[in-house]
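Q: Sequence in, structure out?
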Amino acid sequence: MSTEPSSPEVVVEALGVPVGIPVTGDDALRLRRQWSRALSDRTADTVIDVDHLPVDDDMARDYAITSLVTMAALDSTAGQRVNLHAGAVADPEGRVLAVIGPSGSGKTTAIGLLATRLGYVSDETLSIDGKLLVHGHPKPLSVMAAPDTPGVKHSLSPDELGLLHPPTTSHLHRIVLLHRGHDDSGLVPVSPAYAIAEVVAQTSSLVRLEHPILRLAETIDACGGVWSLKYREIADRIDELVGLLDSEPQPAPARLHHPGGSSAAASVPGGWRRTPWLDAVEYDDEVVLMIDDRIHVLAGLGVVAWLALASPRTLDELVAETTSLLGEHPDAHQLVTDALGVLAEQGLVQPPD
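A: Exactly. Output:
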C-alpha cells in the first residue's frame, strides 16, 4: 500500500480519508458506480495496491478492493478515533444508530432494511472522534447474487439499492449489539462493563488510543449506554431499532479510572503484584481491565484482590483487606488464595518471586 499522495482515476472518501483506487477503463467505470456515495475530488492521502488482485473475477476483485479501502482508512485513523466494526444509519437530525456485531451477525441485512427509513452511513465500519462525530463509510454493500448461487455476492452501491441519504454531519446517539439466534427477546440494556468487553472485540487499533478503555467508556456514556438485540428475524425488529433513537438514555454509571501501570513498585517479600496493564475502569462491583490487547471483566473477589494490589501485598495482607471489606469468613484464606490463583492463571497478577 502506497502512502505517497497521488491522483488515481478513482478516489473515494472512507472514514473521512481520501483513498485512491488505481484502476482505469471498465474497472474505473464499474467502481465509480459502486462507490457513488463516496466519490471524492480530494487528492488521495493513501493509494491501495491492486496489482495482486484477481483479474478474471470482477465480483471477487471488487470485494477485495472494498476490503483494501477499508483497511487503508482504518490504518490512517488508528490512534486518533474509536474505530468500530459496525453498521450505521442516521435520522434527519444527524442522530446515528450504530449496530455492532461480528461477521455473520446480520449487520448488512439490518442496515439494508434500516436505510429504507434512515440515512445510510455504513454497513461495516465507523470512525468516531472524541466529540462523537461520526465519519461514515458509504461503501458498496455485498448482496447475495441469487438464492441458487450461495456465497456469490455482488457489490452494489447504496444508490442502486435505493438507500436513503444521511445528513452531512452526524453524531453517535445509540449503540446496539446484534445477537442473532433462537432467543427472540428483543432489546435489553447491557451493563457497561460487559458492553465494553463486547464492543472491544469489534474495534480496530483500540490499543493505540490513549486510555483506550476510558475512551470507550466515555463514548458509551455519552450516547446513552449500550443495548443488546436478541432476534431471529431482523425484519421483525426494525420498528424497535428505529424507536431506540427517541428512547430515554441509560443513566451514566459512576466509575473510576485506573490508568495503565507497571509492577515497578518496590517488591515485598512474599508479595503479590499486578501484571502491567494498559488501562482499566472500575464500576460499582466490576473492573474492566486491558492487558496488551486482551480485555477482562473482574467481579467478586477478583475485583477486591486486584484493587488491593495497587501496591504489592502478601497473601495475609490480602486476606486481612478482604475481611475488612467483606466481613469475616471461616474460609477467607482459601477463598482469597483461589481468587489469586484464577487471576494469576489469566495473567492479571503475578505471584511472589
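Residues 2-6 have pLDDT under 50 and may be disordered.
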